[in-house]
Amino acid sequence: MNNLIIAPILLPMILGSILILFTQKIHIQRILAALTAIALLFVSFYLAYVVYLSPDQIITLELGSWPAPFGIVLVADMFASLMVILASLIGLVCLFFAFKTIIHERQKYYFYPFYFFLLTGVNGAFLTGDLFNLFVFFEVMLISSYVLIVFGGTAYQLRESFKYVVINIFSSILFIVAIAYIYGITGSLNLADIAVKVAVLEQQGVINVIAILLLIVFGLKGALFPLYFWLPKSYYGPPSAIAALFGGLLTKVGIYAIIRVFTLIFTHNPEFTHNVILIIAGLTMFFGVLGAVSQFNFKRILSYHIISQVGYMVMGLGIYTPLAVAGAIYYITHHIIVKSALFLFAGVTQKLTGTYELNEMGGVIKSYPWLGWLFFITALSLAGIPPLSGFFSKFALIIAGIQEEQYFIVFVSLLVGLLTLYSMMKIFNNVFWGEEQYLDEKTTVKNANWLLIPIVPLVLLTITLGLAAEPIFQYSLGIAEQILEPSNYINSVLNEY
Amino acid sequence: MEIMMIVYIGVLFTVGTYMILTNVILRIILGIILLSHGAHLLLLTMSGLGETSPPLLGENAISYADPLPQALILTAIVINFGVTAFLLVLGYRTYQEHQTDNLEELRGSSDE
User: Fold this and answer.
1) In Å, how far is B98's CA from the nearest CA of chain A?
2) Transmembrane region positions (chain B) (predicted)?
3) B86: buried, middle or exposed (CB in 10 Å: 19+, 13-18, 0-12)?
């Protein structure tokens, strides 16, 4: 029992509620939001520290003191606490970017409250240990994302957001159906309890159907093949600060749920479920990167890259060895940091040039060298060039694939890495090099270097993650060994009578 | 009773799916509403409809209905109510902005 677990959920929720009162006073909102985001980062680090030092490296909190299978339980293991750290970090960075880039008048339309409600939903989804509670936190997150994705209300945003909302409501309905089936079969909603009962029932027939149904639900939220069609268009609409938050966090919540469910509950028939996941991972990587290669638009290329990299994370789960899962966790860490940074770079260049189209930009690096070279480092990290973080995470995945003799998926992932490098270089050549095209005179930004300040920590982090690969990878390996041994989780949750 | 409910849920899902596949904004929203009703009823039915007794466990209760699915449905209905209200407003604003409620015209090309 430890009340610290609920802090990452309560902090943003209380602040979001308070900020509703101050919608007209932007300065008060900003000060409160910045202080809370910093506090949230410290709290999440402290939570991870406590989890790391606790005996089983898992701490639980039974809400309302109802014992585990009957009440809702919050569980923080090492994986969940790492994800909460990443969510808080990206929340802080994108918040500071939003201060500078989102138009003042628009900030009065409940931007900050919904921003923090989104963080509430994300942190809650990471920390909960109950399937229906996961659904509720998903909905908290999604309702906030519906509001943020139409933020600004341009015709394009309204058109694409309508589809985004309908698709996500549909996936939530499927989630309710899956919950109904699970409750009908096991009579429980606690993840640990379901895991025990599925082990007794032997995983076949209906339980496999439920596993694939949950894979479809989380795959819709996490943009897996063939359910990714909504993502590129939807993420093109909102302002860059919001797009960076979404690109970094939202799809990863779906991936987190897939990893949690398929390492805890549906582990008894891996030759069926995990092979399906592996095939899907290969297709996701390949088609996502093909989309990126075909586009000529800064933000759309980045959106398609989200899809291809979600494939890498799921590939780690599909190979299903400790090394592969550790690679996937390392990759999630790297991807959240780098992808958010790239979306923020897209926002900065859009502020300078007034466009996202690659053909209409050029030679930005002459006027803004810092912007150009920082982008260059981040782009190389995304493509997986040593000594940056992207290389080591892919390296672990590929080594794991070769050890398991899954040569085809290794080939696909290397090919995708090559095409990723090509599309990132396409951006670099067209935007930063070449003939200097005229910069937008109407630009509202007097000095773009101020906009770079929120991004610099992310670039430093990707360099650090690469140079300190060994300790970080050991940490990931510890997480992987922990989540691949479901008995740890089950005993921690159920033995607190 | 369960068989009747299952058939009814199937009808709801069928009609909801048909409505979602039409190309008018309002019909799609109605289809979403029908689908969610189907899902909520399924949640109730899958856990067994139980006896005619209330979901209360007194001192000497002989039989009682399972209270948990009713709590789950209550939560799901409230969430769905809020989301549907938002979706109606979003659909209306989309119609205002584009002067059409036909999704064929709201398709959007890939090169804009």
Assistant:
1) 7
2) 6-21, 28-50, 70-90
3) middle
What distance in Å separates the CA atoms of residue A80 and residue A58, rounded to the nearest whole number?
10
pLDDT at residue number A201: 87
Across B33-61, average pLDDT: 81
* Mean pLDDT, range B21-43, rounded to an integer: 93
Alpha helices in A354-388 (DSSP H): 364-367, 369-383
C-beta of residue A305 within 8 angstroms of C-beta of residue A289: yes
CA gap A30, A333 in Å, rounded:
27
| Nearest CA-CA partner of B12 in B51, B43, B56 | B43
Contacts of B79 in chain A (CB under 8 A): 136, 139
Taking the CA of residue A342 and the nearest CA in chain B, the distance in Å comes to 21
Distance (Å, rounded) from C-alpha B79 to C-alpha A300?
32
pLDDT at position A405 is 86
The residues facing A62 across adjacent strands are: A73
3-state DSSP assignment of residue A238: coil
Supply the DSSP symbol for A239: -
List residues of chain A with CB under 8 Å from any CB of chain B.
132, 135-136, 139, 142-143, 146-147, 150, 153, 155-156, 158-162, 165-166, 169-170, 172-174, 176-177, 179-181, 183-184, 187, 189, 233
Residue A221 tokens read as 């939220």
Nearest Cα of chain B lies from the Cα of A162 at a distance, in angstroms, of 7
- Tell me the C-alpha distance between A218 and A179, whole Å: 13
In angstroms, the CA B15 to CA B22 distance is 11
Judge: B112–A156 Cβ closer than 8 Å, yes or no: yes
**CA dist A232 → A102, A119, A255, A295, A404 (Å):** 21, 22, 17, 11, 33
State how many domains chain A has.
1
* B1-49+65-104 placed in CATH 1.10.287: yes
Instruction: Please indicate, yes or no, whether the overall pTM of this predicted structure exceeds 0.85.
Output: yes
How many angstroms separate the CA of residue B29 from the nearest CA in chain A?
Answer: 8
Full domain range(s) for residue A140: 2-494
A333-343 b/e (C-beta count within 10 Å ≥ 16 → b): bbbbbbbbbbb
Residues of B in contact with A170 (CB under 8 A): 20, 32, 35
Distance from C-alpha of A395 to C-alpha of A353, rounded to nearest angstrom:
37
Alpha-carbon span A238 to A220, nearest angstrom: 20
Q: Could you give phi then psi for residue A212, rounded to 5 degrees?
A: -70, -35
**Could A158 and B94 be called an inter-chain contact, meaning their C-beta atoms sit closer than 8 Å?**
yes
What local confidence, expressed as pLDDT, does residue A258 receive? 93
Among the residues of A20-70, which ranges form H helices?
Answer: 26-53
CA–CA dist A40, A37 (Å, integer): 5
Taking chain A (497 residues) in runs of 10, the rounded mean pLDDT of each run is 87 93 88 94 94 87 83 91 94 91 83 93 93 94 93 87 93 94 90 91 87 93 88 89 91 93 89 90 92 89 91 91 92 93 90 82 81 90 86 91 90 92 89 73 62 89 90 92 89 75
What is the per-residue pLDDT for A497?
45
Q: Could you tell me which residues are beta bridge partners of residue A221?
A: none
| CA-based nearest residue in chain A for residue B21 | A166
CB A333 within 8 A of CB A462: no
DSSP letter at A225 equals: T
Nearest to A320 by CA among A253, A263, A266: A263
